Fold this sequence. Notes:
By secondary structure, the chain is an alpha/beta fold. Helices cover 49% and strands 15% of the residues.
Amino acid sequence: MGEICTIGYEGAAVEDFFATLRLAKIDLVLDIRELPVSRRRGFSKGALAAALEAEGIGYEHLKGLGNPKEGRDAAKLGRFEEFVAIFAAHMQTEAAHADLEKALGLVSGKQACLLCYERDFRACHRNIVSERISGITGQTVRNLGVRNGTARELARKEIQLAAYA
């Protein structure tokens, strides 16, 4: 059955983000931001998709699974129950149903990862989406945390391993 992963890039250096994906052996990133833009260099849709492709990782933007503005606003203000209610209502829309079906087809046989901004998955809609997918597919959910310095550590290990090759 495998697993479905989730990741947030809040506060993450782009190189540590990619190192985390490599360590988790991610094949496919499903971007579930409603608006796949970012002030953070490397995390807007075009730049991210190109960088993922260069890493051999697929990219798919599923706008219908994004948190609508009202939900994002409620979450930012700490109104968690309101955020959950807004997102639950959004998940009943035709766009959400269509992209959930698309996600279900894409995660089959892949090491897939849902992407959004928030570092803490518990306060992010990707937790709700991943649990929905898990409930249908039986996949376990693994939330990846991006640690500062991961890219450096990975490069050091690869250098050490290459020395023994």
